[in-house]
Design a protein that fits this description.
two-stranded parallel sheet, mainly beta, globular, 5-stranded antiparallel sheet, single chain, about 90 residues, about 15% helix
Length: about 90
Amino acid sequence: MYCMVMQVRYYDECKWQDVGDGLIYQFVDADGKPLAEIALKDADAHLWKWQVMLPSRYRLDASVSGGIVVTDASARKVCELILLCTIVTR
């Protein structure tokens, strides 16, 4: 019998890590696997690019979820909201 095992990720075990001297942050799980990443796209306009690394079953046409927002706090919230609605639980 085939059984698909899905790793449960808990929000309180995940954290944002600075991986690029304040220009790139990754949201990692307890094992250190990146679940999302935000990066400064345009320093003059304060634009931040966000990207969420979801399993293929949560992707539309196999594309990675991403976008651009004005602040890093907004980028973090968007990523966390998407993850909480898919693969991360409280």
